[in-house]
Write a structure and sequence with these properties.
- The chain is of the alpha+beta class.
- Strands 1, 2, 3, 4, 5, 6, 7 and 8 form an 8-stranded antiparallel sheet that branches. Strands 11-12-13 form a 3-stranded antiparallel sheet. Strands 9-10 form a two-stranded antiparallel sheet.
- Bound molecules: alpha-D-glucopyranose (GLC).
- Alpha-D-glucopyranose binds next to helix 2.
Length: 628
């Protein structure tokens, strides 16, 4: 009889074990499956064990030195676990208690009279139990998406480090779509994290960290040290420049010095921080974020973003095209997308920075920037029916500390389309705010990420979703989701985009529809307890996304056509769909991305407003909103 006794943990997925009654010493490799069973109100999971034996070892220490081979399981004289125990080759499926983290000590095999942690006999399929604990079977569409996502994986020295932007075998001119884009990899990374395949994410975080301090120049000018690249490529180069010496692989980053328009990707570093936190929360492996090089990398990004300049506002000042919209689209200055990612990254960094003496100043700066930033956006970027009516009646040229129309917005600047379009219920954060200029366009990523990060108040977050629901045809139409609304047309398009033939009205960045935005929509909807909205959007996407070969974007007002120059098999369209599906299946997992309202930040802002004698309070502070 073989009584199996876990001896010693060798780390995740590996349990050194001695099979008593035999001379064989080996270990069990174990893999968790996503199937769940309920038994006496407790949830159990399934583990597949593969017994590996160390041939060379003869000690009973449980160590597995020497070469390994799969070894047939010791003769199973144990009772089958309610028919759920399966033996396939050398694999044995066991039912184990689902704890926080599966540890070797939780795994027991029932052998004859040997002790087992669960009694068998009454296990029933978990479909009846708590929906959140279980994952549904993969649909054919999800299966296809996984296949495509895996085929987009990029390897560096044999290990996966990212996914390429698009993987269309018929595309002879991929431009830079054969690179790993930082922003594009985020939904891939989340999909892999949710699937439990975390190595690729860890590798990506560490390799891009090395690229951060790369020597970078644009015509003799060196951009800031903390800058993260927009993308990178794995290149094979001759060793010491001579092919006769063989070849090696190198990572070749692009910081914008080769990108169209030569724009620095401000969002890359912000996404990197957001992903670092998601990795920690998802895997429970906080050692990565605690590493000295990782802490330093994070500080470098923060220093670059928090550096003093000529700014009068707490928002981050950037050039046009510094984010997902990486072409001229009139989003220079203080665009919402950057502000939402900035706020989110600061919140994530504050959680992860080790508060040792050398970081205290940075943490203080960061905290006060967070309060000022959220106040500024909540107060000045928000528009709804009431606020628009206020703007409509604005007085201008007010010179005083008490000015109502602080940015000197002229009422005639109020866009005519907005007057009829804004619903009675709901509102949104405008695209940009500068002196005498409010960009009234709705930008989806900025608004959705303001919900996810709690940059928007809970009421505003509800309002944004109300607006999307009320204007469903404009935002979702035949494919979720419009990147911005409405499109620039005519003279405006000519002046603002510089007559960009790629950004014609209702195409690409100018009112095109991007399937990847589905994942951000889903995170926002789940956070606000409205998953059915995301489900509706996914259903729309499912009707055609695979048939259309997973395009990058769609054109026309209602997203009826595949984008004129859209890449096919665009990885973040595929990954965005998968993340949306997986999150609906496991809604609790959105917590790896979301931040909740932080009352201490509000309190800090309220105190500094009170302390400023030049500021007169008009209204009382509500729990979630400060108004001066
Ligand atoms: C386009 C998009 C950009 C994306 C890149 C790779 O340039 O505008 O957001 O990162 O393609 O997919």
């Amino acid at each position: 009889m073989h009584a199996l006794q876990p001896r010693h943990s060798c780390g995740c997925g590996h349990t050194a074990i001695a099979t008593q009654g035999s001379s064989a010493i080996g270990h069990w490799n174990w893999k968790r499956s996503r199937v769940r069973y309920e038994f006496r109100k407790k949830v159990y999971g399934v583990v597949r064990l593969r017994h590996c034996i160390a041939r060379a070892s003869s000690t009973a220490s449980g160590s597995s030195s020497g070469s390994e081979e799969d070894h047939p399981l010791p003769a199973p004289d144990g009772e089958a676990i309610a028919g759920k125990r399966k033996k396939e080759g050398s694999d044995l499926t066991l039912v184990v208690s689902v704890g926080e983290n599966l540890r070797p000590g939780h795994v027991y095999v029932r052998h004859g009279g040997a002790v087992a942690p669960l009694t068998v006999g009454e296990i029933r399929k978990a479909a009846l139990a708590d929906k959140q604990s279980f994952s549904k079977r993969e649909s054919p569409l999800e299966h296809e998406a996984w296949e495509l996502l895996r085929s987009a994986m990029v390897y560096y020295c044999g290990t996966p480090v990212g996914t390429i932007a698009a993987n269309d075998p018929t595309d002879g001119h991929p431009l830079n779509y054969d690179q790993v884009f930082i922003r594009d990899f985020i939904p891939s990374a989340i999909a892999f994290l949710l699937k439990g395949e975390t190595d690729i994410v860890r590798n990506f975080l560490l390799h891009t960290l090395q690229l951060q301090s790369w020597e970078k120049t644009v015509d003799c000018y060196n951009p800031g040290q903390g800058l993260m690249p927009a993308s990178f490529k794995v290149r094979t180069v001759p060793l010491e420049g001579d092919p006769a010496n063989g070849t090696e692989e190198v990572l070749d980053p692009d910081f914008g010095e080769a990108a169209i328009g030569r724009v620095a990707p401000v969002d890359s570093g912000l996404w990197w921080i957001i992903l670092l936190r998601a990795y920690g929360k998802s895997t429970g492996d906080y050692t990565l974020q605690e590493r000295v090089d990782v802490q330093t990398g994070m500080k470098m990004i923060l220093k670059l973003c928090l550096a003093d300049g000529f700014d009068m506002f707490p928002t981050l000042l950037v050039t046009d095209g510094s984010c997902m919209i990486d072409r001229r689209m009139g989003i220079h200055g203080h665009p919402l997308e950057i502000q939402a990612l900035f706020y989110s990254a600061l919140r994530c960094a504050r959680e992860m920075l080790i508060s040792e003496d050398s970081a205290l100043d940075l943490i203080r700066t960061l905290t006060s920037r967070l309060s000022a930033l959220s106040f500024h956006i909540r107060e000045y970027y928000w528009v709804d029916m009431g606020k628009l009516n206020e703007i409509y009646r604005y007085k201008t040229e007010e010179y005083s500390h008490e000015a109502v129309n602080k940015f000197n917005i002229y009422p005639d600047h109020l866009s005519p389309w907005l007057v009829d379009w804004i619903p009675n219920k709901g509102g949104y954060l405008v695209g940009n705010l500068q002196p005498a200029h409010m960009d009234f366009r709705f930008f989806s990523l900025g608004n959705l990420w303001a919900i996810v990060s709690s940059l928007a108040t809970p009421e505003q977050a509800e309002g944004i979703l109300d607006l999307i629901e009320a204007r469903w045809v404009d935002f979702v139409g035949n494919m979720p989701m419009k990147i911005c609304y409405p499109a620039l047309q005519g003279e405006e398009w000519r002046i603002i985009t510089g007559s960009d033939p790629k950004n014609t009205p209702w195409s690409y960045h100018n009112g095109g529809s991007w399937p990847t935005l589905l994942w951000q929509l889903t995170v926002a909807c789940i956070k606000m307890g409205r998953p059915e909205m995301a489900e509706r959007a996914i259903e729309v996407a499912e009707k055609r996304i695979s048939r259309d070969r997973w395009p990058e974007y769609y054109d026309t007002r209602a997203a009826r056509f595949v984008g004129k120059q859209a890449r096919l098999y665009q990885t973040w369209s595929i990954a965005g769909y998968l993340v949306a599906k997986m999150l609906l299946d496991k809604p609790d997992a959105v917590k790896i991305l979301t931040c909740e309202e932080d009352l201490a930040l509000l309190e800090a802002m309220s105190c500094s407003l009170d302390a400023n004698p030049r500021i007169k309070r008009k209204r009382k502070l509500k729990s979630t909103r400060i108004i001066v």
